[in-house]
Amino acid sequence: GAGVSQSPSNKVTEKGKDVELRCDPISGHTALYWYRQSLGQGLEFLIYFQGNSAPDKSGLPSDRFSAERTGGSVSTLTIQRTQQEDSAVYLCASSSRGTVLYEQYFGPGTRLTVT
Amino acid sequence: DAKTTQPNSMESNEEEPVHLPCNHSTISGTDYIHWYRQLPSQGPEYVIHGLTSNVNNRMASLAIAEDRKSSTLILHRATLRDAAVYYCILRDSGVGGYSTLTFGKGTMLLVSP
Question: Which residues in chain B are contacts of A104 at CB distance < 8 A?
């Protein structure tokens, strides 16, 4: 079956512009996660969705970052007024449930470069 | 989250077994031990997880020490495709009904033909 997909695969943007990153989780997965991976910081958690609500936003680095999920499916991560330190690979993952017993399936990521 | 300690890198030859160690001396009774790996230019993928007993699946085996302060991921016959960064992660089953992944630096496994 289809795995987690993300678009675009690569995004180059100028500093100060807004960007939207999209994640299509595996059908039927209620839990959705966003992570980012940068050279200096490794892989870090950003936000967790259960259905359309986000009970854990603790990893969002600033108020320039926001995310939403609609219909219990597609999620969009928005970064406003991008900065060079936002350059990273943004990874989305989904799982059947959010609990510890369910593995997370990761997408291929979106590589964001802020110039 | 409890912390894990892994070697920065390990090397293996193709078709030989590989034992990847992980120390987690501050593990709590509700922590599950999860392993993920990340192949070059790909997102992480799940490998295996366990709580107290040793576990086997098609990808690997997980050996958990009796005191649970350490564990070992075993790849029975390494292939070139197994070259990846392997992450040992503790996931707490007792907090809020959900659990995210906290990645450390992992172990980079190099496999030689």
Answer: 36, 44, 46, 101
Could you tell me which residues come within 8 angstroms of residue A58 by beta carbon, excluding any fewer than 6 positions away? A45
Partners of residue A99 in chain B, C-beta under 8 Å: 93, 97-99
Assigned token pair, B105 = 């630096």
Q: What is the pLDDT of residues A60-93, one digit of tens each?
A: 999 999 999 999 899 999 999 999 999 999 999 9
Burial class from Cβ neighbours inside 10 Å (0-12, 13-18, 19+) for residue B21 reads middle
The answer on pLDDT for A1 being more than 90 is no
In angstroms, what is the C-alpha Rg of chain B? 14
* Residue B107 · residue B7 · CB < 8 Å: yes
SS3 state of residue B27: coil
